[in-house]
Amino acid sequence: MKLVMFGPPGAGKGTQAKMLVEHYKIPQISTGDLFRENLSRQTSLGLKAKAYMDKGELVPDDVTIAMIKERIAQPDCKKGFILDGFPRTLPQAKELDKLMKIDKVVNVTSKDETIIKRLSSRWLCRKCGAIFGIDIPPKKKGICDKCGGELYQRDDDKPEAVKNRLKVYYENTHPLIEYYEKKKLLFTVDGEQPIDVVFEKIKMAIEK
What we know:
Elements: E1 2-6, H1 13-24, E2 28-30, H2 31-40, H3 44-54, H4 61-72, E3 81-84, H5 90-99, E4 104-109, H6 112-120, E5 123-125, E6 131-132, E7 151-152, H7 159-182, E8 186-190, H8 195-207
Parallel strand pairs: 1-3, 1-4, 2-3, 4-8
Antiparallel strand pairs: 5-6, 5-7
């Protein structure tokens, strides 16, 4: 089972991906994690990526694809995997097609105002990384329920930054939605519904 997860930041895509990982026992492959892992291990691909990142440039598609290719060759991907954060552009989607056949593309949507409200109220714990927000507020303002650590807000979760992230997402991703729709692989679900309802709908679409 080879899945691709789409969705604007804050639509609930990450939560659904974690639930799918748990349910199907397949790994979630995030390009961000791949970059960090290759950089920390100082692999040749990691060093190639670093050369671009240090200059503030985007890592070229061929380097990203090579990392994905290497990752999906590992034993835990035998039953399948969930690609998260890739592809982001049409050229990437076409390159991915050369590499493998995708079974389903899940597109989790949400209204912009909901996303801005949700992300700009998101706070993270500096010590344990726990996340708090509208749905799960901390019992004590600024203090983590789990470990008592200090809560902080990421710069890219501030309203203006969220609006910019959404703009970038729509510019890059809209052509992909059309691309996968034509291939009859796209399943779109409203991420504003209760988490369990969204999960059940995704599961039904995958197993159809």
